[in-house]
Amino acid sequence: MIDTLIVGSGFAGLGAAVKLDEAGRRDFLILEKGDSLGGTWRDNVYPGCACDVESHLYSFSFFPNPDWTRTFARQPEIRAYLEATADRYRLRDRIRFGVQVVGAEWDGTAWDVRTADGETLRARFVVFGTGALHEPQVPDIEGLDRFAGTAFHSAQWDHSVDLAGKRVVVIGTGASAIQFVPAIAPDVARLTLFQRTAPWVLPKPDRPISSSTRRRFRRFPLLQRLQRLSLYWRHEALVAGFLHPRIMRAVQGLGKAYLRKVFAGDPDLRRTVTPDFTMGCKRILMSNDYYPALRRPNVAVETAAISRVTETGVVTADGVEHPADVIVFGTGFKVADGLASMAITGRDGVKLADAWAEGPEALLGTTVAGFPNLFTIVGPNTGLGHSSMVFMVESQVDTVLDAMRTVDRHRAVAIDTRPEAQARFNAEIQDRLSTAVWATGGCASWYLDEHGRNRTLWPGYTFSFRRRTRRIDPGHHEMIA
Ligand code: NAP
């Protein structure tokens, strides 16, 4: 039996592994379904892919990188950083690639973790770092299977297709599309962008970091720490706007001013791309080249609903056919499934899918009542609309380690979350979420489930999350002897 199995080798899995190792809990193995590490930063290789949180903040606190070449690093650099993390902390030989976890059963003393290859691994603790956004969501559009061109999702970008001179239809205007549309627009013959809901877009303070600044960061690590701190607090200042939509409506003025500036000579297009909901209700996007790309002569923004796909293009509800050689889906991910799609059985034979029938719920996003010694990094209600998820990952890892230490201290078999503590916690955050902009801003988003409940976001400051996750509250947990 192994002490800890970690599932996934993105920021969450690697972050947990480093901290376990540092704490002397070296008996762990990372299971990774892919053939390389990096999670979302391995999967998303679409043109223009980058992070919209500054890299000096969107990185591990324990492994600062003085060599970021841009304020907002692009995907290859972030992936390389994760590879470097694995090297620096000697994690490579602790990862088993090509191993997909499909289920896990608690038998009263440990977890039997099953893989797609039919193998069973036994572990005391299981840490899921499987992320929330990796299953592409491709809409079920009539006739799509008859399309004679190529169609793919942004997270499964087909680099074998040369887009130069092609007529490309892009569906979706979310965080991914606003990055790849400007990257491909100059090459394609024609780009028709299907916008169902116009997002709020703000300018991105993205710039190269000079070699002298990088040298300074290398020589004076304190400078880099100060830079990180300043970014951290600038992001935290946004929280008030998300919780109090009145404040956000004032900030919205910045978005309107940006629209007026970019579309000064084109009021029709400006109206087309002006959002009709309160800023922040959906993720606030940042780009300097998205709006300018929409003004290109070879780009058209189409707002008519898609009714079907033919062999040669996309037909809208008004009967117009938009010819296409390639269709790219920037249509996001299946969020709700997450861990519930794995066959996980906890105490008394309770299945996670049943426990989460009304939607995923955990205590501080990390532990789930009835599922002892199981941890979900980036679990329910840990997502952020305003800052770095890496901060949340590190906070959750604190909780995981404290829970493990507590089990050992009590010479117990396991730790389980008390259902009443989990229920109280969720009632508290749902109460806070009910008045926040995500619920009241007048939009539909993947943050909300089909009942309108927000199971994805943390409604508050990240320092309050950090404070609550630093140590487990013994009153919220039960020790299993
Ligand atoms: P997304 O934000 O969910 O956007 C999906 C887009 O597709 C939306 O514009 C949506 O329209 C549209 N859409 C979905 N189904 C459609 C349909 N049937 N017909 C027409 N349009 C449809 O997905 P994403 O852009 O892939 O981003 C997902 C998340 O990944 C982000 O919210 C963010 O958390 C993360 N991400 C982060 C970064 C980063 O820089 N950190 C970059 C990329 C992605 P509606 O708005 O009308 O639903």
TrEMBL record:
Domain of life: Bacteria
Stored InterPro entries: FAD-bind_Monooxygenase_sf, FAD/NAD-bd_sf
Pfam annotation, one family: Pyr_redox_3
PANTHER family: FAD_NAD(P)-BINDING DOMAIN-CONTAINING PROTEIN-RELATED (PTHR42877:SF4), L-ORNITHINE N(5)-MONOOXYGENASE-RELATED (PTHR42877)
Name of this protein: Predicted flavoprotein CzcO associated with the cation diffusion facilitator CzcD
UniProt organism field: Pseudonocardia oroxyli
